[in-house]
Amino acid sequence: MKEELLKRIVKTPDGQEIEIDPLRDYYCEAGPTVQPPAYTAIIEKLFNWARSESLWILGFGTGCGAIEMRPLMTPRFDAYRYGIQWRPTPRQSNLFVISGYLSVKTLKRVIRSYEQMQGPKYVVGLGSCTINGGMYWDSYNTIKRLDDYLPVDVYIAGCMPRPEALLAGFEELKKIIRAGKAEGANQYAANFDWYKANQKSVIHDWDMPDYNW
Amino acid sequence: MQQLYDTLSQRFSLGEFTRQRADLAFITVGAVRLHALLRHLRDQEGFTHLVLLTAVDWLEDGQFQLTYLLNNRAKCQDLGLRVMIARDNASMESIHDLWAAAATYQRELREMFGIDFPGSPRLMDDFILEGWNAAPPYRRDFDTLEYARATYRERPGRETRDPAAHMKQQLYGDKGDV
């Protein structure tokens, strides 16, 4: 556990001594909850159409696959014409592209970022490494199945998949969203304990709250 | 480089000399006077740049080999110093006072090989691995595959083929030996 997260006595500017426990005091202990559809089916359908046309990707390249996103951002492949854009913070994005192999150290940051994204949110696994470990199948510090740790909506196979494959994958994700089947955030909330147990089985120095939104 | 070796061997007891190229040579030296030798090379011979510090695990000999690669920018020469240390309770003198960057290499070696460098700054801080609780992974007696199987769940259905046999089948099909 990092020193700044330990329970300690702090002296305030006016001389009082107070005890702080960062993990309890700075974060909410409530876990995620399942959000059922709020409106009638026809309105949800309209919403889902709107959601599918606004895919804002979190600009977090977790592995080598992030290199394939640069041509998508630039004029040659231009993903912006499909309503897809990249954002710098989790709060502003709803699509997390796990771009390639995920080391345990990165997984910790990925979980924090995913939980900070606002629902409805989607995850795309990019490349073979997210599916079954790919060429890192015998590595001592990369995970082999992404869906053990995060709910994944679409996998894009390849090592690496070309930008065209990514565009096809995003179009596939749009179909899933329009069909109302992109329920990753709800799946994560419903099976929260299972996901946490899996995450903690590989992250040995868990030094953050269980749910850090 | 031979000239440099002759000059150095008047002041230090040096081991084997390997001339790899005109501008690259390796010298095997003892661990005891390594610090003084490095200081001499840096201050007197112009090897001002520490290119890298790395280790090799000679499991069968029970030894680690540390390689200090130095660069003389003015003469465009590289000189590698090889030091053999015992593998059990491996420990080596820190050189962070000669090159501050060496502290980072030493942190990495501590984490990946379990080699101790007493006095090196932030030596026990996590470098790449976080919360690692098994043997240092770059040691050759650490079974990477076994660890990965035990720690990370596999997705069923993954096939592994012998590359040579598979490519033969792909290229020539049933045509037999070609």
From TrEMBL, chain A:
Keywords: 4Fe-4S, Iron, Iron-sulfur, Metal-binding, NAD, Quinone, Translocase, Ubiquinone. One of its GO terms (cellular component) is respiratory chain complex I. Residues 63-172 form the NADH:ubiquinone oxidoreductase-like 20kDa subunit domain. One of its GO terms (molecular function) is quinone binding. It comes from the Bacteria. SUPFAM superfamilies: HydA/Nqo6-like. Transmembrane segments: none annotated. Pfam families: Oxidored_q6 (PF01058). One of its GO terms (biological process) is electron transport coupled proton transport. NCBIfam families: nuoB_fam (TIGR01957), PRK06411.1 (NF005012). Belongs to the complex I 20 kDa subunit family. This is NADH dehydrogenase. It comes from Thiothrix lacustris.
TrEMBL record, chain B:
One of its GO terms (molecular function) is NADH dehydrogenase (ubiquinone) activity. The keyword S-adenosyl-L-methionine does not apply. Keywords: Cell membrane, Membrane. Pfam families: Complex1_30kDa (PF00329). PANTHER family: NADH DEHYDROGENASE [UBIQUINONE] IRON-SULFUR PROTEIN 3, MITOCHONDRIAL, NADH DEHYDROGENASE UBIQUINONE IRON-SULFUR PROTEIN 3. Belongs to the complex I 30 kDa subunit family. SUPFAM superfamilies: Nqo5-like. This is NADH dehydrogenase subunit C. The keyword Nucleotidyltransferase does not apply. Residues 153-165 have a biased composition (Basic and acidic residues). Residues 28-146 form the NADH:ubiquinone oxidoreductase 30kDa subunit domain. It comes from the Bacteria. Residues 153-178 are annotated as: Disordered. Gene3D superfamilies: NADH:ubiquinone oxidoreductase, 30kDa subunit (3.30.460.80).
